[in-house]
Amino acid sequence: QVQLVESGGGLVQAGGSLRLSCAASVSIFSINGIDMGWYRQAPGNQRELVASITWSGRTNYADSVQGRFTISRDKAKNTVYLQMNSLKPEDTAVYYCNRLYTNFLPWGQGTQVTVSS
Question: Is the CB of residue 87 less than 8 Å from the CB of residue 15?
Answer without folding.
Answer: yes
